[in-house]
Amino acid sequence: MGGRCSRHYEIEDRIDGTTAVVTGSSSGIGRVTAKELYKAGARVIMACIEESSAAERVAEGIRKEVEASHPQLKVGALIVKKLDLSSLESIRKFADDLNESEEKINILINNAGILTRERRVTKDGFELTYVTNYLGHFYLTCLLLPKMLGSTPARIVNVASIAHASGRMHWDDLTLEKNFSMFGAYAQSKLAVVLITRELASRLEGMFNVLGTGVKTYSLHPGILPTTNISNQIKESSRSWRYVLNFLSIFMIPLSKTQEQGAATTLFCALDASVAEESGFYYKDCAREEMALQARSERDAKKLWDESLKMVGLHDFHIKKDHKING
After folding, report:
1. Which residues form a coiled coil (predicted)?
2. pLDDT digits over 230-268, tens only?
3. Residue 109, beta-bridge partner list
4. What gap in Å lies between CA 91 and CA 95, rounded to an integer?
5. Could you read off the pLDDT of 89-130 as tens digits, one per residue?
6. Adjacent-strand bridge partners of 19
């Protein structure tokens, strides 16, 4: 399926035996992504920030929804696990659990994301937007990578945004202590996502340049979506910001997508045979899209890789199958 993704992505083949991890899968396009993978037969690990009872209700809702609409369908499995991407401890605990319990991980979809009106700092000392949208996913990917290298073919799908085009990396102030703005923080985090997707692809292929590793990476813009998080930010903003955001939303509505349409490019990158041999590229509307100029900087991509490893404490990280990661 190509083109504008004006409808939901049709999964043509069964994916029984596939294990997929989806972060932020309790709502929005993450929930739709988890549901579609489950319908196609995958074992889906729903990584949710909510407490287990609330997340289990979401999973049960998906099961009932699919049963009602496709009563004869052979489905996969939904497994709910707690994950707080703003906490390195939570990420490590989650990854250790999966590395111990799962035989393989074929698909990792780093979907969770937030937009915060005010600068907030986590207990690890990171700015909340940066760690939730980018750094937490980077750490999770590194911790699960050995398992994925042993589960090939495998794909890592990073949900970015067209907002990366207006972002820049504040190398002397990545936590934006000096210069925080809601949209600036969001744009920087999404630029980091696109940069690291390219750099990881380069390292995966470069270290195994004969046949490659069998693990491919993708970043994407899902489209303009009426997400709960952004809606909440509009409600909580000051009166002046609320006027601006509501005014902009008038022009965004005709361009916005349903959650099913928003999940289409994620599913396309995770499953479509046409991109099975591509890696490190950026996608929009189920097709490859040119990324912003600043996202194509090899120097910045390598610098971000090194800085990110330092920030999460992975000082001796190597891409190698079955390599035990310390940090």
Report:
1. 91-118
2. 545 545 555 544 554 554 454 444 456 788 999 999 999
3. 22, 157
4. 6
5. 999 999 999 999 999 999 999 999 999 999 999 999 999 999
6. 43
Structure tokens at 142: 């590194």
Residue 283, judged by CB atoms within 10 A of its CB (0-12, 13-18, 19+), counts as buried
DSSP state of 151: S
How many Å apart are CA 107 and CA 230, to the nearest integer? Answer: 27
8-state DSSP, 135:
I
Task: Count how many Cα atoms sit within 13 Å of the Cα of residue 207 in the half-sphere of its side chain.
Answer: 13
pTM of this structure: 0.90
Give the chain's end-to-end CA distance (angstroms, integer): 41
Question: In the structure encoding, which two tokens stand for residue 237, read together?
Answer: 């903003």
Given a contact cutoff of 8 angstroms between Cβ atoms, the answer to whether 57 and 143 are in contact is no
Contact 220, 198 (CB under 8 A): no
Q: Which two three-digit tokens encode residue 49?
A: 């920030």
**Element holding 158 (H helix, E strand):** strand 154-159
Contact of 252 with 224, CB cutoff 8 Å: yes
DSSP line for 56-113: HHHHHHHHHHHHHH-TT----EEEEEE--TT-HHHHHHHHHHHHHH-S---EEEE---
Residue of 130, 186, 282, 283 marked active site: 186
